[in-house]
Amino acid sequence: MYEWDFSLLWTYKTLLLQGIGYTLLFTAICVVGGLAVGLIAGLGRLSSNKWITAPLRAFVEVFRCTPVLVQLVWFYYALPVLTGIEMSAPMAAGICLSLYGGAFYSEIIRGGIISIDPGQTEAGQAIGMTRFQVMRRIILPQAFKRMVPPLMSQSIMQLKNTSLLSVLAVPDLLYQGQVIAHDTYRPLEVYTFIAVAYFIILLPATMWAKRIEQNHSQVEEA
Predict the structure, then answer these.
(1) CATH of the domain spanning 23-175, picked from 3.40.1010.10, 3.10.350.10, 1.10.3720.10, 3.40.50.300
(2) pTM across the whole model
C-alpha cells in the first residue's frame, strides 16, 4: 500500500509559493490584456465597414477554433521564425493567452451590446447625441450588466489555461510541481497538492461568478 507523505512539500514551499504567485500574476495580466483586445475587437465588429469587420472576424474564428495549447507552441516556436523577433517564454505565452481570451471576450462584449434594444440608440440620436455618446452613456452601462457573468466565467477559464504554460517552461504552479515531482519521485503528493491549490483558488471565484449571475437573473425577472 502506498504511504502518503505530504510533509516533504514543506521543503519546497518557496517554489510552490512562487508558482502560485506567478499563476495569479499571469492570470491578471492575461485577463487585462484579453479585455483590452476584446473591447477593441468587439466594438470593431459592430462597424458597417467590411474592411474592419472581416479581419476581426477572422481573428476571432482563428483563436476560437484552434486549441490554446497549439497556439502557445506556435507563438513560442513558429512566430519568431516568421518574424525574426525572439520572445521569451513568458512574453510569448502572455501575448498568446491575451489574444486567445480577447477573441472570446470580444464576442461577449459584442453580444452584450447588440442585446440592447435598438430603439434606445434611436432615442439618443433623436435628442442630439452622437453615436459615441449614445454608446458611452446609454448602451454600454446597460450592456455591461449583462456582460459581467460571462466575462467572469471566461476570466476563470483564463486562470485554468495558465496551467498550460508549463509546456513552455514558464514557472507557474504546475511547472514548479513538475520540478518537485522529478526531484522527489513523489508525484501523487505533488499533483494532489496542485489540484487542491487550484480548487481553493477557483472555488471562491466560481461562487462569486454564480452569485453575480443569479443576481442578474433576479434583476432581469423583476
Answers:
(1) 1.10.3720.10
(2) 0.88
